[in-house]
Amino acid sequence: MSKVKVGTVQMTCVKDKETNLQKAIEKVREAAAKGAQIVCLQELFTSLYFCDVEDYDNFDLAESIPGPSTNALSEVAKELGVVIIASLFEKRAQGLYHNTTAILDADGTYLGKYRKMHIPDDPAFYEKFYFTPGDLGYKVFQTKFAKIGVLICWDQWYPEASRITALMGAEIMFYPTAIGWATDQDEETNKDQYNSWQTIQRSHAVANGVPVVSVNRVGFEQDGAMKFWGGSFVTNGQGKLLYLASHDQEEVVVTELDLSESDYFRKHWPFLRDRRIDSYQPITKRFIDED
């Protein structure tokens, strides 16, 4: 299928999991009504972004994958004939948790999961307290409408992750995300941070010749100390912005992608052809020190 319509759901969340899940389902329905074939939800959409604190009670938010949320979304995917990309807090075993995205095909089939590989640990983003780094490697999923790659939030800063995912055949790269500004920052810092975030992801589209879809949450959380900056966007395979969301509103938008463009971009900017794979072994080192 050459052209694919992608739905992005940028929304606010509340404390209650079931409320968030039902809200997300309604947003998926809205996207499908607008023609979406693949719908991407934001990172950890069934809860507030709980990683702002280290609190053992927050582990109670986790669930198995497949599990209750994927079961509910699978029914919706089958009913509407849409692919759903769902980022969830996975309880793998007692005391073992991941930040995980599940992929549900348009017939409701659970295609599998991707576990977030890069785990941040910064003020108000204490993810290492909760999440074990992913151990499934990078993944692509053959859905009804396209072969998709999924990476999660902090993964988006690493060109190695996007390159590997593209080399595995991803036709679109999706980034469910939860990122925001501390409310005590000045406007110039806010602007610089957002621009860096957008630029690095657009560069993955350029370097690999595939569209990028980044979906962020929006609104104040942490008792108003953190404003999630929204700004969800979609690019084509040359990094051109096809859709850009606001910083402060919920939005459900459908964007059409022409996957056949990737062949054109890769022919005219043949980065894959000219890769010197024989010279890249040093990338596996943490840092290249003197011997």
Q: How is the biggest beta sheet arranged?
A: 6 strands, mixed
Please report the total strand number as a whole number. 15
User: How do the strands of the widest beta sheet line up side by side?
Assistant: 5-4-3-2-1-15
Tell me the Rg in angstroms: 18 Å
> What string, H for helix and E for strand, traces the elements in order?
EHEHEEEEEHEEHEEEEEEH
Note poorly predicted spans: none
Q: What is CATH's topology name?
A: Nitrilase/N-carbamoyl-D-aminoacid amidohydrolase
- Going by helix content, strand content and strand pairing, the class is alpha/beta
How much of the residues is beta strand, in percent?
25-35%
Helix segment tally:
5
Q: Report helical residue fraction.
A: 10-25%
Distance between the termini: 51 Å
Return the domain count. Answer: 1
What is the overall shape? globular
CATH architecture: 4-Layer Sandwich
* Averaged pLDDT: 97
The CATH superfamily bears the name Carbon-nitrogen hydrolase
Can you give a write-up of this model?
By secondary structure, the protein is an alpha/beta fold. It has one domain (3-284): Nitrilase/N-carbamoyl-D-aminoacid amidohydrolase (4-Layer Sandwich), CATH 3.60.110. Helices cover 24% and strands 28% of the residues. The strands form three sheets. The protein has a six-stranded mixed beta sheet with strand order 5-4-3-2-1-15. Strand 4 and strand 5 (110-115) form a beta hairpin. Helix 1 packs parallel to helix 2 and helix 3 packs parallel to helix 4 (187-208). The longest helix is centred in the C-terminal third of the chain and has 22 residues, at 187-208. The relative contact order is 0.15.
